[in-house]
Specification:
With 126 residues, the protein is mainly alpha-helical. It contains six helices and no strands. The chain is flat.
Length: 126
Amino acid sequence: MVSAPNPISSLQSDPIEATASTSNTSETPSAFGGTFWRVFLSTFVTIFLAELGDKTQVATLLLSAQSRSPVVVFLGAGLALISTSLLGVLLGQWLAKRISPSTLDTCAGILLLLITIGLIGDIVGQ
């Protein structure tokens, strides 16, 4: 006699283990695989270049100069950047579970286009 799978037992299993067993290991970033380093370096370079000369960097520079406590400013700014990055990662994971990548790309493109139109409107209106 063949028994039906128990839905309760599948809910009690470890979600990380279940994800690992069903995911494609060639696409999953691993500590020793090339995918990890590609994602890591791509993220680092993108964020590093985007933050150069950003208002956050200018604010950090000014706070450091005014406070004469560069280590404290560095720790505060670093913690703030880590916190905002964590929020971005968590929101990204939440959205990825609910929206397809192509829809997410389209929404991001529309949002950036609207921001651009708003900035151009501000420049023209001055």
